[in-house]
Amino acid sequence: MIFSEILINWYSINKRDMPWRLTKDPYRIWLSEIILQQTQIKQGLPYYNAFLNAFPSVFELAEATESEVLKLWQGLGYYSRARNLHATAKYIANDLEGVFPNTYKDLLKLKGVGDYTASAIASICFNEATAVVDGNVYRVLARYFGITTPINTSKGNKEFKALAQELIDVKRPDEFNQAIMEFGAVQCKPQSPNCNMCPLQDGCVAFNAATVNKLPVKNKTLKIKKRYFNFLVIISNEGKTIIEKREQKGIWQNLYQFPLIETNKNTDIVVFKELLNKHSLLKNRAFEFTLYNEGPIVHKLSHQHLHTRFWIVTIKELPVGGIPVAQIHDYAVPILIGKFIETFNF
């Protein structure tokens, strides 16, 4: 039995029951793929259901405000995915009259849609024989064929894509793509793969060479940058607080946050009081402040770790217009701030 047949047969028996596997609707497939990028299924599934409940079709998603989309996305991270999702929904609804492109080449033109997502939609919805390559696929192919080319290089991307394209079942591209991804997620896992009960065992180079734990190869990533965030939770006597929209490009664009002071290291209370006295919102004003969390909360992003502290600042009245603290839950905020809001119990 050839490689693709083994995988498809395994998939027919072992595939998990997922709602997006019950449809060929490109809207639902696209939505699931965008949500599940860099997100585990158990985390992404509730978001998928929530988005479908709120926006049953691309038209409802297009009509939503960006704030509504970001609020529903809150907690998933990588918020550029949500902004691209919304932008693409508006383009499909308004410019394409709700009709998704039906080829890999045209799907690639959509904002936020790359090679993997375009391949998934094209194969699952339109039966185009274009192979998907994600982390699971890299792992299965690297181990089975004994490939040592680093997967996070241009050479690796091309090599694995070409191999996956060569292996795809042209008559059943949708099943093959879903099968190889599911196989990597369930059988050929990153840690403790089930090699003893693997249908590909006999031909697996890594298994027979005892190199399963060494593949796939990945070059060392960039050095992690440390940043030091100090959020000012300013609360007035009348129960109002200040939040600001983070409009600059980068992490958390268009999400809301408390006023921020970024420093080059963790600072003590004496030094931080001087920073507060110079801050435009507090300069020449009477206030009291306390440190909410003595130990910094370390929020880990892909290339930076945010060492975060929240400072509670009480003041008679706000220097600028604010919002009642009861309304703070209505705003889309980063998960880091969302967790603080829950714990602080506004």
From TrEMBL:
Record has Lipid metabolism as a keyword: no
EC number: 3.2.2.31
SMART domains according to UniProt: ENDO3c, FES
Pfam families, per database record: HHH, HhH-GPD, NUDIX_4
Keywords: 4Fe-4S, DNA damage, DNA repair, Glycosidase, Hydrolase, Iron, Iron-sulfur, Metal-binding
Residues annotated as domain HhH-GPD: 35-186
Co-factor binding comment: Binds 1 [4Fe-4S] cluster.
Cofactor dependence: [4Fe-4S] cluster
Enzyme class, broadest EC rank: hydrolase
UniProt catalytic activity: Hydrolyzes free adenine bases from 7,8-dihydro-8-oxoguanine:adenine mismatched double-stranded DNA, leaving an apurinic site
Keyword ATP-binding: no
InterPro entries per record: A/G_AdeGlyc_MutY (IPR005760), DNA_glycosylase (IPR011257), Endonuclease3_FeS-loop_motif (IPR003651), HhH-GPD_domain (IPR003265), HhH_base_excis_C (IPR023170), HhH_motif (IPR000445), MIG/MutY (IPR044298), MutY_C (IPR029119)
PANTHER family, per the entry: ADENINE DNA GLYCOSYLASE (PTHR42944)
Known function: Adenine glycosylase active on G-A mispairs. MutY also corrects error-prone DNA synthesis past GO lesions which are due to the oxidatively damaged form of guanine: 7,8-dihydro-8-oxoguanine (8-oxo-dGTP).
NCBIfam families xrefs: mutY
Similarity comment: Belongs to the Nth/MutY family.
Record's protein name: Adenine DNA glycosylase
Lineage, opening ranks: Bacteria, Pseudomonadati, Bacteroidota, Flavobacteriia, Flavobacteriales
